[in-house]
Amino acid sequence: MIEYRQRNYSWEDPLKGINQAKNITGLEYLKGIFAGSIAAPPIFNTVDFKVISVEKGQVIFEFHPKEFHYNPVGSVHGGIVTTILDSAIGCSLLSTLPVKTTFTTLDLKINFVAKINTKTPVLKTHTKIIHQGKTTALLEADLIDNNGKVYAHTVSTCMILPI
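That's the PaaI family thioesterase sequence above. Prediction below.
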């Protein structure tokens, strides 16, 4: 007989935060999320990662691998890792954008470098903006442990847009 485990989580109305973001810079918006004064996007609680640092050009997330992240072969699903790195890239770019400006991901390529499971230490993101123009940006991000071991690497192109 299958023993089911259960996970409960909650989130705030995402439109509240999105509406607040329209009249402040990306950095102000992200600092508000970090401080808890602006609702975090529901994806943060759904995937279970958190913002631990917000600076212009670098938003760092922390991720504790859990069994509810697993794929059928007993490691963290690649979609979870991709979501975390896409979020790190997007938020790092957003932190540089002025009022009434947003972005969207145009493409994303990921390399899974090492297996991630519940025995893996706490992981953090590290993002680098390679190029940022008026309409596009090229970024890369790594998911690393405290010793600098890389578990995943991604490169992404984003389009910068007026709201």
